[in-house]
Design a protein that fits this description.
Length: about 500
């Protein structure tokens, strides 16, 4: 038997070497070998430019470079195609956005795409700044390299190198769509192809890209906002007295909501850091973080103090675009008295849906809408105010295994409540069950209306061995009551260990 095992070990080692040397399939017409990811059939690849991104995606996923053979193929044939040829279908455009999510290796793959001409082929607007030199004392790199370095700085936040960067890394992890931030970074300086003021020109050029990608209106608006105002936070943080509450108030008025604030803060950090190795000093980094915290507190702690009234900016647009089945009076009755940030959080189309949900609402009614938005879900509940309303909705989501990402609770003076949640279906309950949506809405309505007790649902899940939680750190509960940040409301901060009920 000893002889058998010696021979078996030799065979196993020989096969392991062969396995390492043999090309491994990593996608349609793609293999990974010692020199990187390459095409199996170059002739097929030459005629399918929409497949070229896949070789870079496979390299990104596997932590490998793209083989020189594949890069050469793209470089030799990229000029035969126009931008739309690289992402002609909805699936191709979705794959491109997924590729842009910041993670280790993205900078290297984008640099390969730039070197072989694919990045400029997909986005001629970016090609306009290739090797463009900015003649000033501060910028050390060409505009295209500065842009890619900014994306590299964002990528590095996935594994922060210093304790101070952990704050910013947490912001990145909390973003709903970080790929939109990468998209904004990619085009924030394309207007520098000319020597005049570049932000507005960058917005104009980026708008062409966003139209080709057919992004939803809200995503386009967000990317355009980031590009247009990408210098504003650095000006406020480094050249203004941020100890002045008026400076913070003005900046908070500009960003409006927390998602924009987080994105603009990250954009400023990585953009300034990519100017030169000496530009972003620890002191400037601290000033930037301090402005973020002060603005965040201004937006969140006192957000209920400013409410929508008849003179509110944005109401006229709502009335102009309203569908014929909704009257102006119905819209005004619904939105007046809600926090002003409501009009920035939701698109006009979403507002119209909310108004429709509120129509003919009665004390015992619960009107809800469930919608999938990419990898996440959104649920909107409209009802009249009830005890434990927000916590009951959280309980239903938790009882069904949903991971709550963020929630908004708003009430108008008439006692009408709008609760909006974004969540991830980690256990794929809605996907795997044919009646999952209907079951979800029935459970939600039963608990909110008081027909069912959510505590029983949570306790049953807590006692199940399938959902037993381990490794949750123990720490004492912290409860803080704040009567100073808002003129109208008491703010209660509760930090406790996560439990089912």
């Amino acid at each position: 038997m000893s002889e058998y095992f010696r021979h078996a070990r030799s065979v196993s080692r020989a096969l392991e070497w062969t396995r390492r040397m043999a090309p491994m399939p990593v996608g349609r017409n793609l293999v990974r070998s010692r020199d990187g990811v390459r095409f199996v059939d170059p002739a097929e690849a030459r005629t399918r430019p929409e497949s070229w991104l896949h070789v870079f995606q496979a390299a990104l996923d596997s932590g490998s470079p793209v083989a020189d053979e594949a890069i050469g193929l793209v470089q030799d044939h990229v000029n035969r195609y126009v931008a739309e040829d690289f992402y002609p279908a909805a699936g191709d455009r979705a794959a491109l956005l997924a590729f842009l999510k910041p993670r280790p290796g993205l900078y290297a793959r984008l640099s390969e795409m730039h070197d072989c001409g694919l990045l400029g082929g997909m986005f001629p607007e970016f090609a306009a700044i290739s090797c463009r030199v900015v003649r000033d004392f501060y910028h050390k790199y060409t505009v295209d390299e500065h842009t890619l370095l900014a994306i590299r700085n964002l990528e590095r936040l996935a594994t922060p190198s210093t304790p101070s960067r952990e704050h910013f890394a947490a912001l990145l992890a909390d973003l709903r769509a970080p790929e939109l931030l990468v998209l904004a970074l990619l085009f924030h300086d394309v207007g520098k192809w000319r020597d005049e003021e570049h932000a507005s020109e960058s917005v104009r050029m980026a708008r062409q890209v966003l139209e080709r990608l057919r992004l939803p209106a809200a995503d386009r608006e967000l990317v355009e906002f980031l590009i247009e105002h990408h210098l504003r936070m650095s000006v406020s943080a480094f050249r203004r007295d941020t100890e002045d509450p008026e400076i913070v108030r003005q900046f908070a008025e500009l960003v409006g909501i927390e998602e924009r604030l987080k994105m603009l803060c990250l954009m400023t950090l990585v953009d300034v850091d990519a100017v030169s190795p000496e530009t972003l000093t620890p002191w400037r980094e601290e000033l930037l973080w301090r402005l973020y915290v002060d603005t965040y507190n201004h937006l969140t702690l006192g957000y209920g103090d400013d409410v929508i009234d008849r003179t509110q900016t944005g109401l006229s647009e709502l009335m102009t675009r309203r569908p014929s089945h909704l009257s102006e009076s119905a819209i005004r009755q619904f939105v007046e008295g809600l926090p002003r940030r409501y009009l920035r959080l939701f698109t006009p189309e979403a507002v119209y849906q909310h108004v429709q949900l509120a129509r003919d609402i009665q004390p015992d009614h619960v009107h809800a809408a469930l919608e999938q938005k990419g990898p996440t879900w959104e649920v909107t509940v409209v009802t009249l105010d009830k005890p434990f309303l927000f916590s009951n909705i959280c309980g239903v989501l938790s009882s069904l295994g949903m991971d709550i990402l963020r929630g908004q609770a708003m009430t108008n003076p008439n006692g009408l409540v709008l609760d909006h949640f974004e969540f991830a279906d980690r256990e794929r309950f809605l996907e795997l069950n044919a009646d999952g949506r209907a079951h979800f809405l029935r459970a939600l309505e039963a608990v909110v209306s008081g027909e069912r007790d959510v505590t029983a649902r949570l306790r049953a899940r807590e006692q199940s061995v399938l959902y037993h939680r381990t490794g949750i750190p123990r720490f004492p509960p912290v409860i803080h009551c704040d009567n100073h940040s808002s003129r109208r409301y008491t703010i209660l901060d509760i930090n406790v260990k996560s439990t089912w009920c």
